[in-house]
């Protein structure tokens, strides 16, 4: 068996307080070791678990020493968890204490430091008041705060005084690590608080601000409700947000009067920094949102966009309960490839929570544009073909604008006129997204005819980015897999080889499907009843034909009015001697061989949650080991049989019929 240990969120296992692999007695937290106890229990558990939020220990002699062979053993463990951002160090006189934060973090504060004869183990150090050098926290803080790592020589000269001459002393330290993008300070009243982000970043959020008598140390300040200026966040935000550095005067004139006039106050602040290349803002409904990249850079991606009630700030925006799912696409059209852009928070978006005050919130990433343009596009008249091609190594990742009909403006800033096909963007996206180049025919057969007897134009603006390598799937050489395509007004015909019959339908789409990377792909225009229509017409047949027409009742409603469509089908042909089926719990599965044949072999049987179709069944994670035996006892050598399905999941069966013979 295995023992799983898990700390609360944001904590890690810091030590193994108790561990015994053997025959420990008692219950948590009062375990007691007995005569049978692996001596390496604690060391092995610590090696696997310390430093992790959670771990799993296998209770077997492959991990721990077997202290009592032949005796049933168990594993009992007690571990201590500590805040994941705390690190500790302990060193004796004459040595050095090293404090090391994880990569990307720095030492933000020193919650504990004692040079003398402190007691306890990390993180539960405690000072001995009879031997404790004054100012140890300040001394360590001066040397270490702001550093990713630091070392402190442990001797009385470092701390200015020997707190207990002649005694063996040591230094115990607990430090708090803070991510590099978190900054803060705490200063006394009538001084100034200065914030400084790393180069190339700016202050994106004020996580905490209090002019009053806040408690705690950076970054874990807490508001004292009896003494706190209510406008602390507002004042600090107005002075600092969007800047690389700022200074705020910690004076009563700067903040509104609090409820503790006459008290000595301080100003405590925690802020977040973010890269200058990540920009974002939020505006109320009816306003216009403006984005502007640093000089020489353009918008390369829209990382977040929501028209509704999003929450958070730059770097941590989140969608709320009300959101227009097309927000990202709309902002992409306005901003990708631009050094600055403006997006109105109005009816260009869908109102999904009428009557609720909404905001438009956007976050984007700016970057230096490559020498080759990433915005491609153009216009061609009706009956022409628009060729789109990205620079080498790039592929189309977004269609910023597409209109088949009438459009105004010029590339890349086209605007819609009164006539445009509603299928414009879906058609172009289907043909071009993910492709390094594509050809788009300016034909009503592809887009429908939005304005009859009017000369139309196809106008497109698209965006390219670095392309991921594409793995092309080769055509399936299996002769039992056959495919066919027929356009509207024609007949699709399928013919299996030899005496095989149509089995599983691998692909069927009536619409505008295409082959992409060697694979049939359903497009935006697809009749959901395509598969059932082919199954009804062809399954079990050696050959079959289907008339292709938008009026054919078996396809259901026309998936895209006015657009030329086709039916593409791929099926698996199977041996006609194979019979099988699926039956649900509480029913029965009836099998019958053709006249003159009996069941000769059970090829597949699964009572559980198998998947697939006849000839392609596969067992799922739930499967009865007796399935084949049960089916064999009921069906072998029978012309037909009925298999009751009693409990559990679907029952699938695949058997082979052979010529009848006598016994």
TrEMBL record:
InterPro entries membership: Lectin_gal-bd_dom, Lectin_gal-bd_sf
Pfam families per the UniProt record, alphabetical: SUEL_Lectin
GO molecular function, one term: carbohydrate binding
PROSITE patterns: SUEL_LECTIN (PS50228)
Annotated ranges, domain SUEL-type lectin: 1-82, 91-178, 187-274, 283-367, 380-465, 486-574, 583-663
Protein name: SUEL-type lectin domain-containing protein
Native source organism of the sequence: Saprolegnia diclina (strain VS20)
């Amino acid at each position: 068996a295995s023992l799983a240990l898990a700390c609360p969120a944001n904590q890690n296992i810091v030590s193994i307080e108790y561990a015994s692999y053997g025959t420990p007695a008692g219950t948590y937290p009062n375990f007691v070791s007995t005569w049978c106890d692996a001596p390496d229990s604690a060391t092995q558990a610590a090696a696997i678990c310390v430093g992790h939020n959670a771990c799993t220990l296998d209770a077997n002699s492959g991990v721990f020493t077997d202290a009592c062979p032949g005796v049933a053993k168990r594993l009992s463990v007690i571990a201590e968890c500590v805040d994941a951002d705390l690190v500790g160090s302990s060193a004796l006189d004459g040595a050095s204490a090293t404090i090391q934060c994880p990569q990307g973090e720095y030492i933000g504060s020193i919650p504990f430091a004692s040079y003398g004869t402190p007691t306890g183990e990390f993180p539960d150090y405690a000072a001995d008041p009879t031997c404790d050098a004054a100012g140890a926290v300040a001394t360590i803080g001066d040397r270490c705060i702001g550093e990713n790592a630091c070392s402190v020589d442990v001797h009385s000269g470092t701390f200015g005084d020997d707190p207990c001459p002649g005694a063996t002393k040591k230094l115990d330290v607990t430090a708090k690590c803070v991510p590099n993008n978190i900054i803060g300070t705490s200063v006394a009243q009538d001084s100034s608080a200065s914030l400084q982000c790393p180069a190339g970043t700016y202050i994106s959020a004020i996580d905490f601000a209090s002019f009053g008598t806040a408690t705690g140390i950076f970054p874990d300040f807490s508001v004292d409700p009896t003494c706190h200026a209510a406008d602390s966040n507002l004042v600090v935000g107005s002075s600092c947000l969007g800047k690389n550095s700022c200074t705020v005067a910690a004076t009563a004139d700067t903040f509104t009067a609090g409820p503790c006039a006459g008290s000595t106050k301080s100003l405590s602040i925690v802020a977040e920094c973010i890269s200058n290349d990540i920009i974002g803002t939020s505006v109320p409904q009816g306003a216009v949102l403006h984005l502007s990249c640093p000089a020489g850079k353009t918008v390369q991606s829209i990382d977040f966009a929501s028209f509704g009630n999003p929450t958070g700030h730059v770097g941590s925006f989140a969608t709320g309960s009300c959101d227009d799912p097309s927000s990202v696409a709309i902002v992409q059209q306005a901003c990708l490839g631009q050094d600055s852009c403006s997006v109105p928070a109005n009816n260009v978006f869908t109102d999904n929570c009428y009557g609720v005050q909404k905001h438009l919130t956007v976050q984007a990433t700016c970057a230096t544009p490559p020498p080759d343009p990433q915005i491609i596009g153009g216009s061609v008249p009706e009956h022409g073909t628009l060729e789109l091609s990205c620079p080498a190594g790039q592929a189309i990742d977004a269609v910023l604008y597409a209109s088949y009909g009438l459009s105004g403006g010029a590339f890349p800033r086209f605007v819609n006129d009164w006539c445009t096909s509603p299928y414009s963007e879906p058609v172009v996206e289907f043909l071009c997204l993910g492709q390094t180049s594509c050809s788009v025919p300016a034909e009503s057969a592809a887009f429908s005819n939005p304005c009859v007897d009017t000369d139309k134009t196809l106008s497109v603006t698209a965006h390219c980015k670095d392309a991921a390598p594409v793995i092309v799937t080769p055509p399936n050489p299996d002769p039992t897999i056959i495919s066919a395509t027929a356009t509207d007004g024609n007949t699709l015909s399928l013919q299996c080889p030899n005496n095989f019959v149509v089995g599983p339908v691998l692909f069927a789409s009536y619409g505008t499907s295409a082959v992409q990377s060697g694979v049939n792909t359903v497009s935006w225009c697809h009749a959901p009843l395509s598969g059932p229509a082919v199954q009804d017409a062809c399954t079990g047949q050696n050959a079959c034909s289907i008339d292709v027409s938008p009026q054919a009742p078996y396809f259901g409603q026309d998936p895209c009015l006015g657009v030329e469509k086709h039916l593409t089908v791929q099926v698996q042909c199977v041996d006609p001697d194979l019979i099988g089926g699926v039956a649900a719990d509480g029913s029965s599965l009836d099998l019958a061989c053709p006249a003159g044949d009996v069941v000769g072999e059970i090829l597949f049987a699964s009572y559980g949650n198998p998947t697939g179709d006849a000839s392609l069944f596969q067992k799922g994670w739930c499967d009865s080991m007796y399935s084949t035996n049960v089916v064999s006892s009921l069906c072998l050598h029978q012309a037909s049989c009925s298999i009751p399905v009693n409990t559990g999941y679907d029952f699938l069966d695949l058997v082979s019929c052979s010529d009848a013979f006598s016994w």
